[in-house]
Amino acid sequence: MSKPAIIAPGGRIGILGGGQLGRMLAMAAAELGLNCHIYCPDAEASAMDVASHATRAAYDDADALARFADSVDVVTYEFENVPAETARILAEHAPVRPGVVALATAQDRIVEKNFLSSHNIATAPYADVADEAALLKAVAEIGTPSILKTRRFGYDGKGQAKIASPADALAAYDAIGRAPAILEGFVPFELEISVIVARGIDGEIAAYDPVENIHKDHILDRSFAPARIDKGLADEARAIAAHIVADLDYVGVMGVELFVLREGTAGPRLLVNEIAPRVHNSGHWTQDACHVSQFEQHIRAICGWPLGSPERHCDAVMENLIGDDVDGWAALAAEPATALHLYGKAEARPGRKMGHFTRLYPFGSAPHTIR
Ligand code: AMP
Q1: Which class for 102: exposed (0-12), middle (13-18), buried (19 or more C-beta within 10 A)?
Q2: How many alpha carbons lie under 13 Å from residue 243 in its C-beta half-sphere?
Q3: First and final C-alpha spacing in the chain
Q4: Which residues in the chain are classed under CATH 3.30.470.20?
Q5: How many CA atoms lie within 13 A of 313 on its CB side?
Q6: Does residue 371 surpass a pLDDT of 50?
Q7: Positions of CATH 3.30.1490.20 in the chain
Q8: pLDDT tens digits, residue range 255-276?
Q9: Which atom belonging to ligand 1 lies closest to the Cα atom of 156?
């Protein structure tokens, strides 16, 4: 493997995954004079519409993976469930950024929580659930309400079941298919926030302002930039995110989701919910409200470029267009201070992310009316 340490304009980036995140990464790369090769098994992959090269093959096709990685200067990915063997094959042919340790940490909720705890980063109380006996012990220890989540392959609330009282434990276990799981104490959070953070090859770190996230049917609905927290807590959230990327020797953009918890008269506390080793839906507002978007930042980081400024030049509210929400595109396009981003997907199935829009506001004037 002979690949340049710094990928100059004209270089090529391989992206595993062909969805909207890959599409927006490829568009940001093009802005910097870099081109992309998308690798994805799906018949419809909207990232392929905006990239110069594409391979449609399975994630376990070793020959296709090797050819793909040989054809690019660096490999990145837009989803965290990249199989370990796929990452290993790719890494033999090109640098994989973020690296395989970050991937392995983020794709298993127990490994992730153990990593966070061992670095003194607070999380919800949790326990490993390998079988029925472990579940009953965990429920006795952690109490209820609690949430049972599959260790792997969970996203947008999939693979999760709430346990309201101990009597619900086995039904919840059945509901997640008795898969290897984690039991988490239910956090009565005041707000959910996230921090988009980037780390460069030389260890430089840039973190965006924390945003406040509202979910609907377990899918991100809106992000408010900035979150309604004071400066001290915002700095603490950014510091936690910086700590995580430094400890993982991470290169690229990461999304860090946190709960803001207020108990009694004590000040608010932050608990990390999960980390995503990729650009993140709650960072889409950065495209329109920041000097450098999370997508450009990720491309800069994995190509060994200096990071750009994460500074925010206005307030913003990002809203997802899910399923047939996208039919409202014409009215949104008519709003003068609204940036519309559509993903070029043909079929607006329920629950499918079809696009998003970001409304921009002068500092201090973003509405926070919808909860
Ligand atoms: P996750 O897939 O872990 O991000 O969970 C999806 C959503 O479920 C989160 O955004 C929260 O709204 C909620 N949730 C997850 N874990 C907990 C928890 N331990 N306590 C309270 N709510 C949670």
Answers
A1: buried
A2: 15
A3: 51
A4: 189-361
A5: 8
A6: no
A7: 125-185
A8: 999 999 998 778 899 999 999 9
A9: 2
pLDDT tier at 3, thresholds 50, 70, 90: confident
Give the separation between CA 299 and CA 72, rounded to whole angstroms. Answer: 14
Pocket test for ligand 1, best of 80, 158, 273, 281 (most atoms within 8 A of CB): 273
| CATH superfamily, region 125-185 | ATP-grasp fold, A domain (3.30.1490.20)
Q: Can you tell me the distance from the alpha carbon of 223 to that of 227, in angstroms, rounded to the nearest whole number?
A: 8
* Cβ-count burial 134-152 (b if 16+ within 10 Å, e if not): ebeebbeebebebbbbbbb
pLDDT tens digits along 281-303:
999 999 999 999 999 999 999 99
The pLDDT of residue 221 is above 70? yes
> What residues are in contact with ligand 1 under a 6 Å CB criterion?
124, 147, 154, 157, 184, 186-187, 192, 215, 218, 257, 273-274
Specify the range with the lowest mean pLDDT, choosing from 56-65, 246-255, 313-322, 359-368: 359-368
Q: Does domain 12-96 have CATH number 3.40.50.720?
A: no
Please state the φ and ψ torsions of residue 110, each to the nearest 5 degrees: -75, -45
Residues present in the chain in total: 371
189-361: CATH topology is D-amino Acid Aminotransferase; Chain A, domain 1 (3.30.470)
**Where in the sequence of the chain do the CATH 3.40.50.20 domains occur?**
12-96
273 C-alpha to ligand 1 centroid (Å): 7
Question: Is pLDDT at 4 greater than 90 in this prediction?
Answer: no
Closest ligand 1 atom, residue 213 Cα: 10
